[in-house]
Write a structure and sequence with these properties.
Layout: H1 2-6, H2 22-29, E1 34-38, H3 39-53, E2 58-62, H4 64-68, H5 72-82, E3 86-89, H6 92-100, E4 107-109, H7 118-123, E5 127-130, H8 133-146, E6 150-155, H9 170-179, E7 184-190, H10 202-220, E8 226-228, H11 232-237, E9 245-246, E10 271-276, E11 279-283, E12 288-289, E13 295-296, E14 301-306, E15 323-326, E16 329-332, E17 342-345, E18 357-364, E19 367-369, H12 371-377, H13 382-387, E20 395-398
Parallel strand pairs: 1-20, 2-3, 2-9, 3-4, 4-5, 5-6, 6-7, 7-8
Antiparallel strand pairs: 1-10, 10-18, 11-14, 12-13, 14-17, 15-16, 15-18, 18-19
Helix pairs in contact: 3-5
Length: 408
């Protein structure tokens, strides 16, 4: 059943299919813990980015890591419909998943690939990002033997310290790539910022200068790759690198990469994470909650249990630190977050009942919790929170693909 859904084309997800069958509804709605994704809001975010970068900039939409936890296939199909030029994934396998779902846009494998993956990469018509000479040579030999011409992008390490050709080796690399031109087409040149989301931009400016110099080297050799280095932070700051293509990631999903960049563009979070109260008990003073006796009640307490835990991606670091929303009010997480269950104190919400909706991320009444809030409580970033939401948490979609029982 899952494979059948995955093979459907975008056009097959019609309004008539938004109502699930009784069996699908039982499967899909049976678990109270779920994520809801607003694809219409995703489309609005994409348009806001397009308006902010100008009509001449192509948009390479980054949908790696299961679209930052939002569901790669529905998100990718929505972005295709909005006019994305291409898509970015981290791995060959992520690209294959999109191809199997009928995605036809160019798909760049941003996170590198192993030489053993070359047959799968080429067979799936994925665009490789080259980052060293040996892998490039292996790809060239495969293309030559197969008699195929493959479009490639080259990553230069301007200061991130991960993958990429070092700047002082770029000219030599370009010369080698030019000799391979019968089978490898040098389509794009890219790099990655290390700290563009920070307030200090000196290092970022130095990366831009190195990137521009490297691009000029390629151009002086008669090569004309599409340059792209601008990420979400660079888009928001309007850094002087808004080249012919930009690569928004977290911004598509409604979050700024850092707090001082919030509100620059009118984007909104597209994901809500919900569960329901599983149990409520009145417990006495001195009652120990969860593992390790990290929380002991100091008053008679209405202790609630939620059917969500770190196996679902609810961070264990939220133990005794996080908050949830119940009946439009905040309630603290108490005790250690367990693999499948989390406890909260509902003493200050006496009207709460078993079965009440609980918001982990999202809005309820006048209150709102975001992935940024959860990240702050657990000493991380919103990216990790969103990407960490487990695959056993059902995703429900509002918009063109709403309520389709995707197994993502």
């Amino acid at each position: 059943m899952v494979l059948a859904h995955s093979a459907k084309s975008f056009s097959e997800f019609s309004e008539e299919e938004s109502e699930t069958s009784p069996l699908e509804k039982e499967r899909f709605d049976g678990r109270p813990t779920c994520v809801e994704i607003d694809l219409e809001r995703l489309a609005k975010n994409f348009r806001a980015i397009r308006d902010g970068t100008g009509p001449s900039s192509k948009i390479l939409a980054v949908v790696k890591a299961n679209a930052y936890g939002h569901g790669a296939i529905p998100v990718a199909k929505t972005l295709c419909g909005e006019g994305a030029h291409s898509l970015g994934v981290a791995t060959v396998e992520e690209g294959i998943e999109l191809r199997c779902a009928g995605i036809e846009l160019p798909i760049l494998v941003l996170g590198g690939f192993h030489s053993l993956q070359i047959p799968l990469l080429v067979e799936s018509d994925l665009t490789p990002v080259l980052f060293d000479l040996q892998t490039t040579e292996d790809l060239y030999q495969f293309a030559r033997k197969a008699g195929k011409k493959i479009a490639v992008h080259v990553k230069v390490d301007t200061g991130m310290g991960r993958l990429g050709i070092l700047p002082d080796q770029a000219e030599s690399f370009f010369q080698t790539l030019k000799k391979m031109g019968h089978f490898l087409t040098f389509e794009g040149l890219l790099s990655h910022f290390a700290s563009a989301d920070g307030k200090e931009i000196t290092y970022t400016q130095s990366q831009i200068e190195v990137f521009q110099k490297t691009l000029q080297q390629a151009q002086q050799m008669g090569l004309d790759p599409i340059p792209h280095i601008a990420n979400s932070a660079a888009i928001l700051k309007k850094l002087p690198c808004l080249d012919s293509m930009v690569r928004p990631g977290i911004l598509l999903y409604g979050y700024a990469p850092s707090s001082h960049l919030e509100g620059v563009l009118p984007v909104e979070p597209i994901l809500s994470w919900k569960t329901r109260v599983l149990s409520i008990r009145e417990v006495p003073v001195g009652f120990s909650v969860s593992y390790g006796e990290s929380f002991v009640t100091r008053r008679r307490t209405r202790l609630a249990v939620l059917p969500v835990g770190y196996a679902d991606g609810y961070p264990r670091l939220l133990s005794n630190r996080g908050e949830v929303l119940v009946r439009g009010r905040r309630a603290p997480v108490v005790g250690r977050v367990c693999m499948d269950l989390t406890m909260v104190d509902l003493t200050e919400i006496p009207e709460s009942q078993t079965g009440d909706e609980v918001i982990l991320i999202g809005k309820q009444g006048q209150e709102r919790l975001t992935a940024d809030d959860m990240a702050r409580w657990s000493d991380t970033i919103s990216y990790e929170v969103l990407c960490g939401i487990g695959r056993r948490v059902p995703r429900r979609y509002r918009g063109a693909l709403r309520n389709h029982p995707y197994d993502i």
